[in-house]
Each structure stands twice: as C-alpha cells, then as structure tokens.
Amino acid sequence: MALDLLNAQLLRALASRFARLVLLLAAVAAASFALMAASPVDPIDAYVGGDIAAIGPEQRAQIAERWGLNDPPLERFATWLSHVARGDLGHSHTFNQPVAAVIAGKFLTSLALMAVAWCLSGVIGFVLGLVAGVRRGRWADRVITWWAYTLASAPTFWVGLLLLYVFSVSLQWTPICCAVPVGTVASEVGLLDRLHHLLLPALTLSLVGIAPVTLHTRQAVTVAMASDYVAFARAQGERTLGLVIHRVLRNAAGPALLLQFSSLGELFGGSVLAEQVFSYPGLGAATTAAALGQDVPLLLAIALFTTVFVYVGNQVGDVLHAWLDPRIRRLKEVR
Amino acid sequence: MTAVLVGVGVTGCAAGVDDAGSGAGKPVPKELRLAIGGESEDGYDPTLGWGRYGAPLFQSTLLARDAEMNVVNDLATKHTVSANGLVWTVDLRADANFSDGKPVTAEDVAYTFSIAARSGGLTDVTALAKAVAVDNDTVDLHLKRPQSTFVNRLVSLGIVPKHAHGKDYARHPIGSGPFTFVQWDEGQQLIVQRNENYYGPKPAFERVVFTFAGEDGALAAAKAGQASMAAVPAGLAKTAVPGMKVVPVKSVDNRGLMFPYVADTGKKTADGLPIGNNVTSDKAVRQAINQAVDRQALVDGVLEGYGSPATGPVDGLPWYEPSSAIEGNDPGKAKELLDAAGWKDGDGDGVRERAGVKAAFTLLYPADDTIRQGLALSVADMVKPIGVEITAKGVSWDVIDKRLHADAVLFGWGSHDPTEMYHLYSSTAAGVEYWNPGYYSNPVVQHNLDAALNATDQDVAAKYWKAAQKDADGNGFGPSGDAAWAWLVNLQHTYFVSDCLDIGKPQLEPHGHGWPITAGITGWRWTC
C-alpha cells in the first residue's frame, strides 16, 4: 500500500517534470526558429560563398527549392514541427546528411570529450576546494584561491591555444589536431590513440569548470569547519583528516554536485571553443558550421538536444542533492 | 604573363628529379600530408559542386586547364560546338575506367550533366537543356542558349558513374580520377590512395592525407613537421619554419573599388534601396582615382609584398587585355582630369566641389576583413592630395547589402570563368545579387560581352572579352575607358612547402586560398 503510494507519487513527479521538459522544448524551438528567421544571414549566400558570381538566379532558385526555402517562415516551422513529431529531424544541408545521423556521429565524439572534462573538473575542483577550505588562510589556500581566480578569468580558447603551443608544437607530446591520428585508417586506430588525442582538449575544457567548484566547495567547507558539531567532534579528540571524512565531506559535496550538474550548459558552450581550437570534430564544431551556414534543421535539432541534455543534467543534480542532503527533501515536503 | 615565373622558391627546387630521388638515396615517402583546408562538408559529389576548384581527386573531367590556363583534353579526345552554339559534341577516350572497374561511357557523362543541371548544388549547369549519349563514346550537350563559358563546366564537372551514383555517393565517391577514396573523418582528415588504374600520368605519392585543422592548426602542423604543405595567410608567411620554404602563388583573387555608376536621381530598387551617387557617377572622378592610387604601395604596405597591382578583374588570364591597364600613381594627371571636368576647390578646404556638390563619398568595406580595411584606409589617404575625400567605413555585410548601389564598396572577386566578368559589367546584371551593384552600362561594352558569350570558339570569345575591357576605339570598362571600378591589388596565396616537395608551376589561383593549389597535384614530385 505504502509502496503503491510512493510509486504513484514518483510517477506524478516524473510526469510533471516531463511535461515541463516538453513545454521548455517547444519554447526553445519557437525562439530559436524566430531568431534564425530574423537573422540577416542569407542561407544561399552563405552556401554559395566565393562562387557568388558563378551561380545564376536559376541555380539559386534550384538551391532554394532543394532546401524548401520558398515557403513562408510560419509554414516552414509548422512543416518542421510536424516532421519532428513523427521523429524525422530533417536533412542538414551543410553536411548533406540526415540531421539525426549528423548528431549521432558528432555527439559520440563530443560525449567522450565532455565526460572526461566533466569528471576531471569535478574531482580536481572538489579536492582543491576541500584543501583550501580546510587550510583556510594558510599558503595552500592562498595558492589555490589565486589559481582558481586566474582560471575563472582566462578564456577557454586562449588557454587552449597556449596549451597547444606548449605541448603540441614545442614539446610535441600531444597531437596538433583531430580525434584520431592523421593518416591512419579507422581500423588501425586504438583506444590509446583516441585517449592521446582526447587529452589536451579535455584538459582545456575541464579548466572551465574547476574554478567555480573549487570556490564553492571551499566556502561550504569553511562553513562546516566553523560549525558547532565540528567544534564538538574536535573537542572529543577527532583529528582533522577524520573530521573532514566524517563531518565535512558530505556537507561540502552538496553544492559541488549541484554546481557540477548545472554546469552542463557551460560545458557544452566551452566545448564549442575547445573543439574549434583543437579541430576536434564534435557537436560544438557542427554547431558553428550550422549557425554560419544557416542550417535551420540542424541548428534547431542541436538546440533541442542541448536543452534535453542540460535539463536532464539539472534534474539529476536535483535528485542527487536531495538524496545527499535530507534537509532539502524535508524542505520540499513542507512546501 | 609567360615571362613571370610563379613563386620564388619553386624554381630552385624544380630540378626535374625523378621519383626515385637523388643523392641521399632516401625513398620517396609513401604518404604526403597536406594542411591546406578545403574540406567539402557536404561530401565529394561533383554534381553538387565538388571539384570546381583544384583537383576533384576521385573523378576526372572532360577537359582541363594547364598551368597556362589553356583548355586541354582529359576524358574527352575532342569537342566541337555547332554553328548556332547550341550543341556541344564531345568524343570520349576509350581507356578510362571507374575505380570499380567499369568503363566510363557516354551514358555516364550524359547522366552527370543532366543530374548536375537540376541538383541545386554549387555548380551552375542551368544552361543545359538536355544531354544525350549518341553512341558509346560520343555525347551531345544541348544548351538552352549559346554560352561560350559552358566550356568551364566541361573543365570543372567531374564525371560520376551512373550505376553507382546513389544517396551515399557523396561520402563514398567512385570515379575515374587519379586517386581513390579511402577514408574521410569529417572535420579532421581525408585519406586518398593512388588509383593504379588511372589513365593519365600517375601521382608520385601512394597516399595523400589532407588535414582540415584551420589556419592556426595548419601553421602548427607545419612547425611540428607534420605536414609537407600548409596554406597560411600572408600575414603569417614571414614566420620561419625549418625545412620549409614560403611559396607565394599568383592569383586573380583581386580586391577593387566598385563605383556607383549612375547619378542619384532619387530612383530606388524594387526593394526600396537607393541607387546612384552624384560624385562617382562622373567619369573624371573615377578616372582620377584610378590615376591617383599607388597600387604598388598597397601591395607593399597592406599585403606585405604578397600580391601584385590589379587593373582589371581578370589580370593574367587568357582573356585579359593588357592595354586596358594604366600605369597609375600619377596625382598630377588625376588633378588635370578633375580640373578639366570642372571640379575646383573654391572654399579652400582641400576638397573640390562642382555645382555645389563636394567631391566626397563613402567607401564601405566588411569590418572583419583586415586586408580590405587596410586597402580602404590607404586609398582614402592616397586620393586626399588630389582633392577627393573618401570616408572609409567598416560595416557588416548586412549594411553593405542595403547601400551597395549608392556607396562605393571594396569588393573581392576572381574566377577562372569569365562569366564573373560578364556579371560584373553587364547591364542585364545591374542590381542582381552582388553582380553589377553600380548599375554600370555601356552599349558598346554590352555588345562585346554578349558577343563573347555567344561565340562558338574560345579564341573568338577571348577576343571579345578583351574588347570589353578596351576595344580598338578605346571604349571599355577598364581604367583607361569608363573606369567603372578602381581595381587595386591581386593577392598572392602563400603556402609553406617542404624543401623536398616540388610542386612545379602552379596555376594562377582563383578567389579562395588553399584547395586550388591541388590543380597540379598529379605532377608533384619528391626531390630529396
């Protein structure tokens, strides 16, 4: 009986979150389409580029027809919407491929990059924050805080270029471009090759996320360390290491976790830049190409995809935070 | 044109050494790596425009252009044009096979042209009415209207196999070209393999890898010794890269100043955009500016030496008329022209006036283009002493689109196809797209342009193209005639090339830096 009630509650919560997601997607799609429609970039001009003098009006008409640009915007949006409802995301003219195939291909590459960067920034950021918070005011704290502020104010692409020149050009430890070794056929590319190519872009991307996690964790640790229960435990003779593991860790993990999950959007934005610098062919690079070429179906699909990605990330963060910190759960029940 | 040997570094290496290599005894590397960009994001299907620059690699074309830009046979053994210019008959060679072993037939050629004519891609074959395979090795291409420039479709359209041209062709191309497709990692690299069954001269390298890492990436790859060639912007060409030389390649990638040709009478386009400018509509002003600019100084100052003075849109191509050029850089003559036309500085402010109109106008350039910015600002400085005031303004293309019929604009063009020249100066193209934004029109020039387009023989066409620039009576759109534009410079495209790689004599490149260099790739040799 109680289990049924719990299940019903869970279902209702899921349904409400799902409904919110659908509404959000609709709003994102409409807004993105409106922005694209209002954009001054002419898709045919963008496609034709330097060949503009060699392409006559008849040919332009053919291009417009191939892409279905002749219908009024509202009609195009409606057609697109009805196709999406049937599961057809359309055809990307930039890549001359179905949108679903483009996203599937590029996302797998991006996912590896973002996952590694995300884990790195979470772990490094949390550990640094912990050390800084525990050693508050000492030299370790000062160095870490200074480092965090430096990272927070350094643009990703600049850090990327710097790393590229130091490690790839000067030291030649890491490759200059791409996700696979140059000149090697796919069947001969091993896991180690892929990791080798992933290393520098992932490191660059992780730098975006480290600073906020470090600074928030440091703050949470400081608060916990100053609390009565830590003072009490210390009075009972508990050492600093034990204090951190038993009393502080869980308290400090909440903000870090929440922040980490809500940073998925920034992670995605950062990946656009990192992929550009390292010629890493992920979804970020595809987004740039789609935007510059006014590839409406692809750009809309990427916008929707990112929305789902970020939304799910935030929801997972929410749930995990509640699980980690019972006070949050109780707060919700009261509400 | 023949007198000028292209590239300073090339000649030193062009010893004509054979594949086997000399001296050091090191074998030719099996693999050649090039960082010259040029990825075709929508794949490698010629009917969508792949291969219109440089080499189509996988496919071959009916005709080709040699280093001097002469039309030579490739898949075709002969082509003739009917007297009315409407039927092009092409005879094919019999020994050409696709990389899947099947022969290249007239059927394939007819199919390729028919598909390209309605594909909505980046190759304009809309002049084609129908393509008919007469027999196994003869094709008739029927045109809707005579078009001498159709020869460029025969030069640039790679032939695809009818039996294997499906949905995924663009990602798995099959053709009769010098290379076969191995692998394409999108956004990263293209790997191609030498086609051992190619009918033409075989490339020296078994495998070629093209990396698509952008300009920074290309330079980084060159510095790290990971590429035998890298396309870099001229601004970076001064960097020293060990083991590599800088090869500047001449181009018709030109930059010039487009003048609104008609006076401002309040007329507007169908979209309500203003047309005309009361200063630039005066021939004396246009000619004076053409006289006053020091083009060599622009090359040295703005292009850092990587370029040449430009006086027309087709400098150095077979249809260029050298006598249409002017020496330029003669402010004295410019002042005379303005004085004679009645432009005088009455109020002593350094700017001339005539009938209450100041000799001043705005010059627009796309703000994100530093070369055009440099050119615009320099030109403004150069015409100041002759009493003409140019206000150079960096704006977005959006603004240029609205003002291009009323303000001067710094444009860049350059094509191997004289169609572009036709569009820039034909009154039929006035106000269409970016073609003839100044509404230039001259019946004599128009007559020559049309005669060139309608010609059935390329030499006759070239004669009329030349006459459009300057004819026997001195008429023409060139700087010595109507001076419809003030052409400024032709860029040189700069490449880092390995000291061991001999790329022969490159073609004069069109607008677009990078991929066009592959036009001669089958002739590249390793010399170490």
From TrEMBL, chain A:
Q: GO BP, one example? A: transmembrane transport
Q: Which organism is it from?
A: Kribbella sp. HUAS MG21
One GO CC term, this protein: plasma membrane
The cross-references to Gene3D superfamilies, in alphabetical order and at most eight, read:
MetI-like
Q: Name one Pfam family in it.
A: BPD_transp_1
| Superkingdom, taxonomy of origin | Bacteria
Major subcellular location class: membrane
Recite the lineage of the species. Bacteria, Bacillati, Actinomycetota, Actinomycetes, Propionibacteriales
Q: Does the keyword Transmembrane apply?
A: yes
Q: What is this protein called?
A: ABC transporter permease
Q: What family is it from?
A: Belongs to the binding-protein-dependent transport system permease family.
Keyword annotations: Cell membrane, Membrane, Transmembrane, Transmembrane helix, Transport
Ranges for the ABC transmembrane type-1 domain? 107-317
Cellular localization per UniProt: Cell membrane
- List residues traversing the bilayer: 21-41, 111-134, 146-167, 198-215, 298-324
Its topology with respect to the membrane? Multi-pass membrane protein
UniProtKB/TrEMBL annotation, chain B:
Domain of life according to the entry: Bacteria
Task: Extract one GO molecular function annotation from the record.
Answer: peptide transmembrane transporter activity
Q: What is the protein's name according to its record?
A: ABC transporter substrate-binding protein
Output the InterPro entries linked to this UniProt entry. Peptide/Ni-bd, SBP_5, SBP_5_dom
Q: Does the keyword Transmembrane apply?
A: no
**Domain Solute-binding protein family: from-to ranges:** 71-427
In terms of Gene3D superfamilies, this protein maps to: Dipeptide-binding Protein, Domain 3 (3.10.105.10), Periplasmic binding protein-like II (3.40.190.10)
Instruction: Tell me its family.
Output: Belongs to the bacterial solute-binding protein 5 family.
* GO CC aspect terms: ATP-binding cassette (ABC) transporter complex; periplasmic space
Q: Which organism is it from?
A: Kribbella sp. HUAS MG21
Keywords, A to Z?
A: Signal, Transport
Give the UniProt record's GO annotations in the biological process aspect. Answer: peptide transport
